[in-house]
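User: Can you fold this complex?
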Amino acid sequence: MNQRRLERLLLAFLLRLYPAEFRAHFQDQWMAFLVEQRLERRYRRRWSGGLRFWMDVIKDVLVSSVRMRRERHPPTPQHRGAGAGGTVLDFVGQDFRFALRTLRRRPVYAGVAVLTLGLGVGAATAMFSVVDGVLLTRTLYRDPGRLVSIWQRIGGRKGLTAAGEIRLKYDEYKAIRVQSTAFQNVAVYTGDWGESTLGGGPRPELVEVGAATASLLPVLGITPVLGRWFLPDEEGNRAGDRARVTVMSYGTWAGRFGADPGVLGTSVTIDGVSYTVIGVLPRGFRLQWLSASFTGADDPGSRDFWVPVGSPEWGESPGSTQWEAIGRLANGATLDEARVETGQILKAAWPSQHPDALIRPRMKEEVRGLASPILLLFGATGLLLLIACGNVAALSLGEMQGRTQEVATRVAIGAGRLRIGRQLITESLVLGLLGSALGVLFAVGGTRLLVAMAPPIPRIDEVRVDLVVLVFAGFLGTLSAILFGLAPALVTARAHMGSTLRVGGRTGSRRQAALGRWVLVGEISLTVVLLVASGLLSQSLVRLLAVDPGFNPRNLATVEVTLPDARYGWDMKGAAWNFADDVLRQMKAIPGVEAVSAANMLPFPNKPSTWAARANPEDSTYLMPELYCVAPGYLGFMGIPILEGRGILSTDDGRAPPVAVVNQSLARALWGDRSPVGRELIYPAGRVTVVGVAGDTRQASLARKPPLTFYVPFAQLSRTRVTFAARTRGRPEDVLPGMREAVWHVDGSLAVTTSGTLERSVAESASQERYRTLLMTTFALLATALAAVGIGGLSARQVAQQTRELGIRKALGAPDGALLGGMLRSVGITGAAGVALGLLVAYGVRPLLATFLFGIGSFDPLTYGGIGGLFILIALVCGYLPARRVFAVDPVRVLKAE
Amino acid sequence: MTSRDPTAYLPLTPAAFHILMTLEEGVSHGYAIKRVVEERTRGIVRLGAGTLYHAIGSLAKKGLVDECRPPTPDAAGSSRWRFYEITPLGRRILKAEVGRLEADVAHARASFGEAEG
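Assistant: Here's the predicted assembly.
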């Protein structure tokens, strides 16, 4: 829901406060007036402006509606004048003033309750703003429910199967697009072009480029804000020069080109090729490259430039499954029909591969993998809020025990039950409003913190506290306060009216104390659940970071370049390798560098480059291993062990016979127990002889199993993406400037990405897990603090209420230690009950957590036991601090008072 | 409700007084009245939508203002707004109110004079 619509709804609600007659006459004028007023200069500032506007409007509505109603029903003479006030609003005002006075007289109670509520509401609201921004996306797509992703699965009858989804080839896309009836339209695109170099400016700049078919925008139901999108004849290999057109993102247009409409028709140079600008995409347009998530990192989906498929280097290379497909279902067509039909089309065209289609709702895929961790944390904040509410309830119960005398007195002098109930409601409401206000402050700060600390999550930059979130906070705070502040208050009020004066109001009822203890048990159990979750996540993170990646990431500095195809492309025989070789020679001379090497990519942060590979030409199915093009000596340089045969040598150059080294997993998958050395491996770039077997390495994620991998000499398979790595004696960061210079020394026109150090890349690969653990731990600690306050409060109340009893027992000779023990026993029993219940609940909900754990079971006895014991200790300490006052009870004074 | 004796309508509420004063200068609509009043009083009198239309409603009921056609048929946004004009009765009552206020102000001045003198 956008802000304007929400404001309209709010206005419509306020309008209902007026008498029907006024509405009938002036509804439209009133609305038009306020719409106009909203635009006034003094309401224009984003935050304060909105607030001021709504305060003005609400004040006006309250004042004028009361006046109107009073005119229609003039107050009777006996009600007019002093104090008694005729209207509901007068009553409410009186109640509020009284509530504020009451709360001010109990600053500790009010302060703790408001702070507690604020924390709970703030945490829940901050998390909600993330949920709202990332998961409840407002998409630009038209009718997004009909958009689907199209993948294929290639299955073999026996033996080798490639797991998971495979993207489409351009031919497959064309076949589906032409033959399918289940789809209204189909498009393919790729976001995997890597970074490109934008020329023309004073310094080369890196930009992200995507390629797509002319059908993409029609499928999504989007039109450019300026100019146009690609035409069908600008797409494909035969388009030739017609395909040298580009559409840029709104951000690029506004930023780099100053939002100049004259940009249409001008040309930009991307990777040395000139493109004519024909359009600008609408603001906020994103298209996620879903495949990125297979390796752990989600793609935010923003590309600076789009070019047509087939423009100029976008060939239809055989076997290259680089296209992600997106289709719009025809009216009435179901997912299943589309899947069956697409499968038939693929099978008919490529019978030998036994392909099958996978069709999935697009919107679900865009948030796949994001939803569950965010919802886990959202759930955790929900528990935190419940704990906060439990605290408020316990506090409120305690307060009511202290106030029974006051309530009874007021009843005795004639206050109606309703009047007292209303007073209690108002007090809860005031607490709730103050708590919500504090919660909003916490939420604004908390949301900023959440976003600042977040690992790359798509759309995280759109997360902000907006009106929807504020309404959520207000609703949450008020509801919590009323439910958990009022309910216990009413229970006690009813129990005590009339009876308390008789017993002198010294002791609270047993039922009340028991209720308070049960609330606390619940609170403790929820806290224990959070503590167990955070304990398990923390241990899981530690174990994840301790995983051996299969290579040595220490003291490795890396820089990355993307070479323009025009000068270093596929057909420029050996140009890329010659460049890399020259750079390596320069880098070797940098002081502090021990050894250097290069590859098209390093295992972290890995950009997937899977190729179809098989062992025999007769094999109808193939595997999808990762391909690394590496400099001679790369394996040894990285510390990847060679288990059999040899590594890539400098003699494996362009003139030598093509060779490859496979990793252990690929060797086992293709040849089983037989030795792969000397055998042939077939992949789209040709047939190569396997000369060695290397150890497995983790790639992109420490949690994933090492993927199937093979290595070929860079000199034999040229790539335009090169990552240079240097092993250093000292800090790897120190040689980065020298490495950049080395690149520029060979080719000054290249943009260089400083990846930094491999160690950091490995650590960053666990950033999602780290974020999750950090947040969960924060929530658990907050919960513990709240529970501690609750336990302390219970204990303090006990002491206060039993002062008289304690004094008498002391006078009768009971030792302090025994009295203290008695006090602590009840705290200990409450704590133990809460812990036991909490461990049980944690055990019950452990499947929810299991997917987030690595290397540790969701039932880890040590974690459960440790946290249980720790919490009982915390409970005893929190109980002991107030209970110490037992020592100070003076039996003489107590008896005198009797 | 209507009465020939203007003093029966006095005193006017501040909102009613400012609305009549604005309409005395010419036909206008709700939001425009608000802007004029705000400018004239340098922002001291800020009429909210409810207060303004409530006042216009009761003025219309008493026959002091009347709904009328837009001054120019094609005035920008005129279709959205309803326009009001002051009636002859309204004018008489505005004058009566101004007279009453003048008398009050004179009285106040005189009492200052006494105090200072």
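The first helix of chain B runs from residue 14 to 24. The radius of gyration of chain B is 16 Å.
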